[in-house]
Amino acid sequence: MSDAILTLAGVHTDIAQYHILHGVDLMVPRGGVTMLLGRNGVGKTTTLRTIMGLWKARAGRVTFDGHDITAAPVPARARAGIGYVPEDMGVFTDLTVEENMVLAAASGPLDPARRDRIFTAFPPLKTFWKSEAGNLSGGQKQMLSIARAMAEDRKLYLIDEPTKGLAPAIVSTMAGALRELKAQGATILMVEQNFAVARALGDHAAVMDDGRIVWTGTMAELAGDATLQERLMGLSMEAH
User: Fold this and answer.
1) Which CATH class, in words, describes the domain spanning 4-81+154-239?
2) Considering only CA atoms, which of 9, 35, 20 is closest in space to residue 160?
3) Which residues form the ABC transporter domain (predicted)?
4) pTM for this predicted structure
């Protein structure tokens, strides 16, 4: 595996009385898309939230871009270059699309060139730029959520199920925008249940089960081996 921008070593995370992560070991290579896959409830979202610092690791180490961030607060992780797109979108519904984007550009005014690239990736955001985000459809809110993470250059994007519940046309738009972000050299760690999207976008894959990483390799290797998919996830990508 190439130079790792993110490493988790023996990470344990508890939520209330529940022990969710049971010693996660994960390396995310710099550049490209790493897919974090597995059945529902195995700890994928908890892994992303632990990396972002929203949940605190009880044990183990999280290293980002050569620095130990295990005890770092969320704002420090964001300033270090980690962008997070949660499953619940995380937009401010009472603010306009523009105001959501301005808040996301923490280092200063939103660069016009970057704004235009976002408009190209997500045309509805240009149409509804002055509208309250609460008036957007579910797919448009998801576009805004990803666009907020793109408001500044990030060294790493954590994206949790960006196509969940979206119509096929919106999924296609979302996948195209993520493909363009990847082409710009971004590093992405993404949880995705749509295996067609995972196969199309992923370079690397890590499969979780019961709070642990149980397999790592290339996305092509996993996508090309139905027996391996059945063994790791209990299903075949071809069926989804």
Assistant:
1) alpha beta
2) 35
3) 6-235
4) 0.91
